[in-house]
Amino acid sequence: MKFVNxxxxxxxxLLSNTNSTNFYQDLSWLEFQSNLGHACHILGIKDNNKVLAxxxxxxxxxxxxxxxxxxxxGILIDYQxxxxxxxxxxxxxxxxxxxxxxxAFFNPYIPYNDNIISTLENLKAKKxxxxxxxxxxxKTNISLDTFSRNIxxxxxxxxxxxxxxxLETISxxxxxxxxxxxxxxxxxxDISLDYLTKLYxxxxxxDKIEMFLTKFSYPKYISNLEEEISVLKEENNLINxxxxxxxxxxxxxxxxxxxxxLKEEQSTEGKVINLGATILLKxxxxxxxxxxxxxxxxxxxxxxxxLYYQDIKYAINxxxxxxxxxxxxxxxxxxxxxxxxxxxxxxxxxxxNKILAYxxxxxx
Length: 364
Prior knowledge:
Radius of gyration: 25 Å
Number of helices: 13
Mean pLDDT: 92
Strand content: 25-35%
Strand order of the largest sheet: 1-2-3-4-5-14-6
Shape: elongated
Helix content: 40-55%
Structural class: alpha+beta
Number of strands: 14
Low-confidence stretches: none
Order of helices and strands: EHHEEEHEHEEHHEHHEHHEEHEHEEH
């Protein structure tokens, strides 16, 4: 066996044979990190010209002209094969020393396994203490009707309520990417506009990303409510039942009050507001939700369920087999959409210089 720098073609062949659904193992993620100014290393094991393992390590600056390696997609390797795993990690440490890397982080993208954790720790890869995260996904090689029939009544009610808003979803370009950024910033997510722009500029030409804005029109929604009031008034003219008439009158008053509130909001916010931000990453037969956000500036319009439904609809309509929700913490949403779930392995760290690694942790 030999520990080598793999070519992109060699790595791509390995990736295609593993049926990976992890976007961070995709070569387009390497291109993006390179565009951010990071050196990237495609490392692997070859035996008689057969590639047995591979990984993309991203180099980041550290103290005293050293660096760290990160491998967010994890190593493409048979974690059950201790011989191959030991060979990879032993030679990775030698490679790190040669390139002045004081530590390397990697996330095994596999279901939680105590035996593999023990093996990695015996090989001097230290488990980083953290909350065990649950990964959620859906199989989307089904019809939209089949998927919709399996959604809970709670989710359907929320989605149907949003449908009354007559929301409009538009594709993001460099001309309106700042509007997407404003929603992300409102959620206190640490992503800069420059990062977002480079993400788009790198991945869009490769057809690896979709960005969407979901917009809400006050005039359109007010018009819908006025039509609803007209229908209720017509019903009142036709019915003689006092109970039904009173119910209609109560609803009419409620809708009129709602319209009044909306018109007041419109005078402050403008006619159209951005309610949702979506970023989808595409690889092989999988779509991954990188970001799916309802605008926290307008909590009165919670469209989270609607946005995820649109994400899943995109995956189904474009014939992707898997939709990854990632480690979304919204338990009611996962239950409502009947997601498939499993616990992920923790992150590991392989230290090459413990003293410098400690100093780098607290270096600003």
